[in-house]
UniProtKB/TrEMBL annotation:
GO cellular component, one term: kinetochore
Chain segments carrying region Disordered: 1-25
Domain CENP-T/Histone H4 histone fold residue range list: 23-117
Keywords: Chromosome, Nucleus
The protein's name: CENPT protein
SUPFAM superfamilies: Histone-fold
Gene Ontology MF terms in the entry: DNA binding; protein heterodimerization activity
GO terms, biological process: chromosome segregation; kinetochore assembly; mitotic cell cycle
Primary location class: nucleus
Comp. bias intervals (Basic residues): 10-19
Span of the signal peptide: none
Localization terms from the record: Chromosome; Nucleus
UniProt source species: Sylvia atricapilla (blackcap)
Length: 129
């Protein structure tokens, strides 16, 4: 009966599975760099902490939405069309403001070249699909 009073040992595998999985976070420096690009004045630490929290929630929601659109389309890979649907639902992309116009307006040339197909000499289109 002494054995019954002994605490049971839980296998190590089960103990670690009870931990909440750690979600990756957007690097603070990246958030700070992006925010400083748009806000051309000093920002208090308290305000920046709120910006960080909002950014994390925004990117989490963005990822969840893109995942849902992709699954709904019966695919396993997020495509540009999913992002366009998301941006249309957010009101960023409209009939008067297509995605290509947003790309041309807000992204530097090196990113525009990657996202918008351009005809070049030799009957080639870049970027190749």
């Amino acid at each position: 009966s002494l054995q019954l009073l002994q605490p049971k040992t839980v296998p190590k595998r089960l103990r670690t599975s009870q931990k909440k999985p750690h979600e990756p976070q957007v690097p603070r420096n990246l958030i700070k760099e992006i925010f400083r690009h748009f806000v051309k004045m000093p920002v208090s630490r308290d305000a920046f902490k709120i910006v960080e929290k909002c950014s994390e929630r925004y990117f989490k929601q963005l990822s969840d939405d893109l995942e849902a659109y992709t699954r709904h389309a019966g695919r396993k890979t997020v495509e540009a069309a999913d992002l366009e649907v998301l941006m249309r639902r957010q009101g960023l992309v409209t009939d008067k403001m297509p995605l290509n116009v947003l790309i041309e307006r807000y992204l530097p040339l090196e990113y525009r070249k990657l996202l918008i197909p351009v005809a070049v000499s030799g009957n080639k289109v870049i970027p190749c699909k």
